[in-house]
Design a protein that fits this description.
The chain contains 16 helices and no strands. The chain has a single domain, classed as Growth Hormone, Chain: A, CATH 1.20.1250. By secondary structure, it is an all-alpha fold.
Length: 388
């Protein structure tokens, strides 16, 4: 039963990743051709993550009331309908709303599938299972930018194709029996959800730095980078290959990193990969106009930091009380959305105010700060353990 659930949930999340991977660069390139400013382009890209953020405030209550399966069906329906409306309603404001709705649906899918897995997975297999789950998302995300090439055949084609694939994937959930998270003694309400957020932040704050950084990377590399690269003379056809190179690196090494995290301290592993990631993006800053070097560096970056979300979820599951896991999974989505909202805005401002000379440096600084915070948390936990 667990194997069947895992396969179907992984297929659903891969299609969800594909949708995000397609929408971000496709609309960024469309707006760049329409001479939309870099800042407005980045602000518009954040709409999908505003939807993720808004949904996060209510999803724990909905999950406990309706169960995993029903929430996935609702999320899939929202994405299917929103994608189908993109080619019909070609307006910047309406597209902002549609992207926001895709964000709401995506969060329903991610929160439900992720919570279902973290609650049902045996602890000794946690790193490997969550890494494969993350790999499924990365695989879809890698295919997404390639799917945007269908726009050259017909402007409606990438939206229609993505909509149909979403419908097909989410239909698989009908094969599963609905289940509910572990019962909580307190009543379901926004107040109690917020209180649970506070409890989870107190025990597991360090784990949420990685979904946040994953959000910054996902949004910036798929919305800011195409604009930055075009302004620095990199060919559009090469840009569409550079972005999947990052996802390819993540895919190839996501499971090995997850298995390593089952064997060594996760704080140590995460502090190492974020530090290496910072060094790689510093190197990227010296080759802003060389597409082939960027392709190589993006691939290497994906190897080390393309698994931050799944590694962060694994760490959160390890250090969070089981009754608070739904709130912890919801916080991962919430913090991810905050990173995804602020990332493109700060990235767009960085590009604009530096006159198209700086982009990778701000990503490197954030990675370095997270690496330092992870080392601090590791030493603090080690001290408490030794004193105990």
């Amino acid at each position: 039963m667990f194997k069947k659930n895992f396969i179907i949930l992984s297929i659903i999340v891969s299609i969800s990743g594909m949708t995000q991977g397609m929408l971000l660069p496709l609309i960024a390139i469309i707006f760049e051709h329409d001479n939309v400013s870099t800042f407005v382009n980045g602000l518009h890209a954040s709409s999908i993550y505003i939807g993720v953020f808004l949904a996060s405030l209510f999803l724990e209550g909905l999950l406990r009331k309706f169960g995993y399966k029903n929430l996935i069906i609702i999320g899939g329906a929202i994405i299917f309908l929103s994608l189908g409306l993109f080619p019909i309603l070609e307006n910047m404001t309406i597209w902002f709303i549609l992207r926001l709705l895709v964000g709401v649906g995506d969060n329903m899918l991610h929160f439900s599938t992720q919570s279902w897995l973290t609650e049902s997975t045996p602890r000794h297999k946690l790193g490997r299972i969550i890494s494969i789950y993350g790999l499924s998302f990365s695989a879809g995300f890698m295919v997404g930018p390639l799917l945007s090439k269908l726009y050259d055949i017909h402007e409606a084609l990438p939206f229609v194709a993505s909509s149909i694939l979403t419908l097909c994937a989410c239909s698989l959930i009908l094969l599963l029996k609905n289940q509910y998270p572990e019962v909580q003694t307190s009543n379901i309400s926004l107040k109690n959800t917020t209180a649970n957020f506070g409890k989870v932040m107190k025990t597991s704050w360090v784990a949420f730095l990685f979904p946040m950084m994953y959000g910054v990377l996902e949004a910036c590399l798929n919305s800011n980078f195409p604009v930055f690269a075009m302004k620095n003379g990199v060919d559009v056809n090469l840009i569409i290959l550079i972005i999947p190179a990052y996802s390819l690196g993540a895919i190839l090494f996501q499971v090995p990193l997850g298995m390593i995290s089952d064997k060594i301290n996760r704080n140590v592993l995460l502090s190492i990969v974020t530090f290496v990631g910072a060094c790689i993006f510093i190197l990227c800053q010296f080759f802003t106009s060389n597409g082939y070097v960027l392709l190589t560096l993006f691939f290497i970056a994906g190897i080390f930091i393309g698994s931050l979300y799944s590694l962060g979820v694994t760490l959160m599951t390890e250090i969070t009380p089981k009754v608070l896991l739904p709130a912890g999974n919801l916080m991962c989505g919430l913090i991810f959305s905050i990173g995804s909202i602020t990332g493109p805005i700060i990235g767009g401002m960085t590009i604009q105010f530096s006159h198209n000379t700086q982009f990778f440096s701000f990503i490197a600084v954030i990675l370095l700060l997270i690496s330092m915070a992870t080392i601090y948390d590791y030493r603090k936990r080690l001290t408490i353990r030794n004193e105990g």
